[in-house]
Design goal:
The chain is an alpha/beta fold and 242 residues long. It is built from 11 helices and 12 strands. The chain has one domain: Alpha-Beta Barrel (TIM Barrel). Helix content is 37%, strand content 26%. The strands form 2 sheets. It has an 8-stranded parallel β-barrel, surrounded by 6 helices. The longest helix is centred in the first third of the chain and has 11 residues. The protein is globular.
Length: 242
C-alpha cells in the first residue's frame, strides 16, 4: 500500500479558508486563488487533492459545486466532499470529474444507504469521513460540518463499514483540526485496531515532516495537510520526499 501525502483546500464562499476545531466563527482566510493553489500542489508532485465544501457541509448542499468542478478539471485527482446528502449529489460530483467522493454526515446518519452506494459505485470511488471528537472517553461522530451531535460512535461505525467493504476512511480529530498541535497517533492506532482492513487517512494537527513520518510509520494510507502548507510551515515537496 502506497502512502499518500494529500494537500487540502477548504472552501467557504469560494475562498480558501481554515477553521479552528471546525468552528465556523474561528476562520482564517487566505488570499490565494484555489485553482492556482491546486496547480501549485500538482506541480510539486501531489497525486491527490482533498477539497471540502464547508458551506455545503453545514447547509446540506453542494454550495461550491462550480468551483469544485473547475478544480476537478485541473491536473490532479480530486477527493471532495461537504454537503453530499443524496445520490443526486454523488452523481453530480462524479460527472464533474471528482475521482473520489467524501461522505461525512450521510455516512454517520444513514449507514445503510452508504452501504448500498459502496456496492453500486464501488469502494474505490468513496471515502467515509469518520471525523470524531472525544467526549467523556467516547469517540463521537458529529455531523453537518461538525455542528450537530449524532448517536453512533467511532467504535460502532468503523467495523461496520469495514465489514461492508469500505476501503478509504478519512479520520479527523476535531479537537486538533487547524491547531498545529500534532496528529492524534493514539486515535489512529485505536482505529487501526477497530478495523484493520481500512485504508485510513489521518487529518488534523500535522505540523512538520516528523508528524508525517509518525503517521506513515503507523501503517496508515495517507495524511491530509492543510494549515501547515498554507502558512509555509511545511514544504509539500519535502513532505512528498519522505
Amino acid at each position: 500500500m502506497n502512502f499518500h501525502i494529500i494537500p487540502a483546500i477548504d472552501l467557504r464562499e469560494g475562498n480558501v479558508v481554515r477553521l479552528r476545531q471546525g468552528d465556523y466563527s474561528q476562520q482564517t482566510s487566505y488570499r490565494v486563488d484555489p485553482l492556482r493553489l491546486a496547480q501549485d500542489y500538482a506541480a510539486a508532485g501531489a497525486a491527490w487533492l482533498h477539497v471540502v465544501d464547508l458551506d455545503g457541509a453545514r447547509a446540506g448542499n453542494l454550495a461550491n459545486f462550480r468551483l469544485i468542478e473547475a478544480l476537478a478539471g485541473s491536473a490532479i485527482q480530486l477527493q471532495a466532499g461537504g454537503g453530499v446528502r443524496g445520490e443526486n449529489d454523488l452523481e453530480r460530483l462524479f460527472d464533474a470529474g471528482v475521482a473520489r467522493v467524501v461522505l461525512g454526515s450521510v455516512a454517520v446518519r444513514e449507514p445503510e444507504r452508504v452501504e448500498e452506494w459502496l456496492t453500486r459505485y464501488g469502494a474505490q470511488r468513496l471515502c467515509i469521513a469518520l471525523d470524531t471528537r472525544e467526549e467523556n472517553g467516547i469517540w463521537r461522530l458529529p455531523s453537518a460540518g461538525w455542528t450537530q451531535s449524532e448517536a453512533p460512535t467511532l467504535e460502532e461505525l468503523a467495523p461496520r463499514y469495514a465489514a461492508a467493504g469500505a476501503v478509504h476512511v478519512l479520520c479527523t480529530d476535531i479537537h486538533r483540526d487547524g491547531m498545529l498541535a500534532g496528529p492524534n497517533l493514539g486515535l489512529y492506532a485505536h482505529l487501526r485496531r477497530l478495523a484493520p482492513g481500512l485504508q485510513v487517512q489521518a487529518s488534523g494537527g500535522v505540523r512538520d515532516v516528523a508528524d508525517v513520518r509518525a503517521v506513515r510509520d503507523l501503517g496508515l494510507a495517507g495524511v491530509v495537510l492543510g494549515r501547515s502548507l498554507l502558512e509555509g510551515r511545511l514544504d509539500l515537496a519535502t513532505a512528498l520526499a519522505c
